[in-house]
Amino acid sequence: MPRFIAIVTEWHLGFRRFNSANCKIKSYFQSGNNNGQGLISGHMNGSLSRMFATLCEKLAEDALKDSPVSDMLVDSFGRLHTYLRISLTERCNLRCQYCMPAEGVELTPSPQLLSLNEIVRLGNLFVSSGVDKIRLTGGEPTIRKDIEEICLQLSNLKGLKTLAMTTNGISLARKLPKLKECGLSLVNISLDTLVPAKFEFITRRKGHSKVMESIDAAIDLGYNPVKVNCVVMRGFNDDEICDFVELTREKPINVRFIEFMPFDGNVWKVKKLVSYYEMLDRVGKRFTGLQRIGDHPTETAKNFRIDGHQGTVSFITSMTKHFCAGCNRLRLLADGNFKVCLFGPSEEPLEELFFLQQLIEVSLRDPLRHGVNDDELKEIIGAAVKRKKAAHAGMFDIAKTPNRPMIHIGG
Ligand SMILES: C[S@@+](CC[C@H](N)C(=O)[O-])C[C@H]1O[C@@H](n2cnc3c(N)ncnc32)[C@H](O)[C@@H]1O
Ligand code: SF4
Prior knowledge:
Blueprint: H1 3-8, H2 25-30, H3 35-39, H4 46-65, E1 83-87, H5 116-129, E2 133-137, H6 147-155, E3 162-167, H7 172-181, E4 186-190, H8 196-203, H9 208-220, E5 226-232, H10 241-247, E6 253-259, H11 276-286, E7 290-293, E8 301-306, E9 312-316, E10 329-332, E11 337-339, H12 353-360, E12 361-363, H13 365-369, H14 374-386, H15 395-400, H16 406-409
Parallel strand pairs: 1-2, 1-10, 2-3, 3-4, 4-5, 5-6, 6-9
Antiparallel strand pairs: 7-8, 8-9, 10-11, 11-12
Helix pairs in contact: 5-6, 7-9
Bound molecules: S-adenosylmethionine and iron/sulfur cluster (SF4).
The site of iron/sulfur cluster (SF4) has 12 residues, from loops.
């Protein structure tokens, strides 16, 4: 039996409480709407890898013409890494089921987390090497006491064009005016449901109205578009997809439907995944005048506008239609580890994974604290970037691969 069908048969009713419509996974896979093909498209064979490498080299050549990106940020497939995501904390004021394991996570002791000065020193190193966009994430970045100072110092780095933040919005409405003054130029606010009781179920905390307030506060402050991240999970919120799209009629927001991804401790099952094609099909049937907007080669989202709507709709298709070929992202974790890919190196046999995990996640904090200079740090970063794989190995292998919980990595 093909592996994906075997996994589908492991039926597990994780979201039964909110599963009003009976889930028809069998007919979904038999429907011939290309989902089966999309679902396994993450697996890379040799010729595909080579094709991606050629495409990436072409992109890199084009980009290098007008961009002073240092070799440190170019991987062995020619991809330029101009986007750094910095996780500021492993702590959070919510406990989202798809991000935080039920038993919680072991927190890195505070002295081992990067300090403000260390974040700014590393940020400066990346920006002076060609990074032009930084996103602050976590955990919940707004709970860091020095968040304003972090924004101020990073936004002043010469060459940085965008300072973005992904936040759960719980305390954003209050903090955003000051953060904007400190240079925060783009916000993504996470919201998975428009129903307060469902919010409490998925986040294991109250706070729905505060998130809604934060979205409005961001609009009022002139952020345009305000990005709204919605992780879609079958049986939990897939019945709300069109309600979220309806919000874009009057609000200048970009609703971003994210395919549910597997991480340690989040009980990922393929039956909970709602594919890009299925989401698009539902939106297309309900809203006429849905048009694809041209995307940049490094864009992770498939973007759409709808006639008469102020806002837009996007799909982040990491699972069924990955965007590794144009990936320009690097990650600095709160404990100072540097990660070149969100997912583990699962193209390799399992017994080699632990060793390889160490190879793609290296500490920048330790050498920094041992007094290495910027050139030595650049060598460590450059070597890690060169080890980056062509693509992730596909969702089924990812689901079996040791990785950290999402809350440790920062989405
Ligand atoms: C880890 S959170 C950190 C920032 C902030 N606490 C927040 O929730 O926006 C970053 C993003 O990752 C998304 N995310 C977390 N776990 C995910 C998963 N298993 N699949 C897809 N997206 C996920 C969240 O919805 C959020 O938009
Ligand atoms: S998704 Fe964000 S808000 Fe939810 S638990 Fe993870 S870090 Fe916290």
